[in-house]
Amino acid sequence: MDDLYIYFSGTGNTKYVMEQFAAELSSSYAIHSIEEKNLDFTTLIHKADTITIGYPIYESMMPHIMEDFLVEHQNAFELKTISVIVTQMLFSGDGANLACKLLKHQDIKVEHTIHINMPNNLTDLRIFPVKTHSEASAKIEKAHNKIIAIVDQIKRGKNIKSGRMWYSWILGFFVQRLYARMMDKAMRKRLYINHKECSKCRICVGLCPVDNLEFKDNRIITMNQCTLCYRCINSCPEQAISLFTKKGPKKQYIRPDYR
């Protein structure tokens, strides 16, 4: 069967990167978002020769939606050859290796683990300013050039091991993930809706990949299961949704083909 590329993308960065790698690396492939609920992913994974998994990294952690997907379909990965590609803002330590560890009991063969830096989508976190359009475009161009360079290395037989070095776990766990795990439950419940600014358009309800938002009693409410993807925050036309503060973002970042 074709090479299989499966991914989760919050605001479009991971989708872009996965599409670039698939087009450059594989002569015949299928690429799917794990949000495509009409697909039989177990069968797709069983039939695939090689599988590439893609996801963004949030504070050196895998998104809950991706982790749940891999756990649900873990038996289908038995004896499969996989590669993992993650997108990140700055660094993630062992971000790409998280999927490998989760699937280690399936006797997988890990071919490549790759980290690609992409523009910041944490638009309500003031310490990380959102890039202007030209700055974001420049960073995406830099990412594209890195993808081309990595593809060239792979075609020449090099095994890419980002996140699998001896120090990668130390960087991922102690620099970010230890703190993030302690805060995880609180963060999943923290999404803030400014009801004074909200126009009740319900765009966010339709966009949420984990059904965390509902329209009830004439207002948007949260179900306390946010996956921290920032899709709703960056898509709200009134900029009325935030996570780290109670002020919506001054700028938003989302690719038009985000999923």
TrEMBL record:
<keyword id="KW-0411">Iron-sulfur</keyword>
<feature type="domain" description="4Fe-4S ferredoxin-type">
    <location>
        <begin position="219"/>
        <end position="246"/>
    </location>
</feature>
<feature type="domain" description="4Fe-4S ferredoxin-type">
    <location>
        <begin position="189"/>
        <end position="218"/>
    </location>
</feature>
<keyword id="KW-0004">4Fe-4S</keyword>
<dbReference type="InterPro" id="IPR029039">
    <property type="entry name" value="Flavoprotein-like_sf"/>
</dbReference>
<dbReference type="Pfam" id="PF12724">
    <property type="entry name" value="Flavodoxin_5"/>
</dbReference>
<dbReference type="GO" id="GO:0046872">
    <property type="term" value="F:metal ion binding"/>
</dbReference>
<dbReference type="InterPro" id="IPR017896">
    <property type="entry name" value="4Fe4S_Fe-S-bd"/>
</dbReference>
<dbReference type="InterPro" id="IPR047964">
    <property type="entry name" value="EFR1-like"/>
</dbReference>
<dbReference type="InterPro" id="IPR026816">
    <property type="entry name" value="Flavodoxin_dom"/>
</dbReference>
<dbReference type="InterPro" id="IPR050157">
    <property type="entry name" value="PSI_iron-sulfur_center"/>
</dbReference>
<protein>
    <recommendedName>
        <fullName>4Fe-4S ferredoxin-type domain-containing protein</fullName>
    </recommendedName>
</protein>
<dbReference type="InterPro" id="IPR017900">
    <property type="entry name" value="4Fe4S_Fe_S_CS"/>
</dbReference>
<dbReference type="GO" id="GO:0051539">
    <property type="term" value="F:4 iron, 4 sulfur cluster binding"/>
</dbReference>
<keyword id="KW-0408">Iron</keyword>
<keyword id="KW-0479">Metal-binding</keyword>
